[in-house]
Amino acid sequence: MTDVSERIGNVTRQRYEQLVTQAKELIAQVARAQFALGDMALEVEPMRPVGGSMPNGTDDLFTVTESLQLFADDIGVDRRMVEDWRYTANRWPNERRKDGVSFTVHRILASVVDDDERWAAIEDAPFNPRTGARQWTPDGAKRVVGQRVDRPVTVDEKVQAVADLTRDNEVAAQVATDLLKRPAVTEHVTPAEKVRVVTELTRDDTVAQQVTTDLLGRPDVARKTMRDDYPDYGLAAA
Hints:
The chain is mainly α. 59% of the residues lie in helices and 3% in strands.
């Protein structure tokens, strides 16, 4: 019987490696096809300078969008895919396209503005600690160009991912409530930040009244409050 630890998903590790090899070959074929489609879209509509006309100076019968929409309709795909292929193919001339690197990675790195920097970037694949090799992944390319990654690894990436997920106030409130229940988390929050949080939470007069009542029910808090608020009335000695 095969050791479960030697399985990945529903297949043995050996079969998995075979599938990876076959998949890489297919991905290479897909990349070549996508670049070829991009080149075709560029032939239909060459890239123009902003506000520019057709390179040959002829009058336009169609706008760029209309031409690409017609091309997309005739080959049965979404126009945005055609625009994606066209943009990426334009940013990566044939002699600069890297064999073994997916079209997706080429598309992400296409946002590197400087041509020389773009050419150099794709030659410098990042190290993948899982495989122990230097290889491109979409997240690796996104780190190069400063885009949000799909699988955050560093603390900064995780913080940004949490920030994105908590843009909704109700979600943020629930997350904050859960986090404040964790002593290991709250011990790293400064007193000033804790005061600010309490201030925000007690803007409602009813909440503030209840919190005040509860706090003054704690003898140590009540004595300290009385000393701080009424130093001239001799209450500190009471």
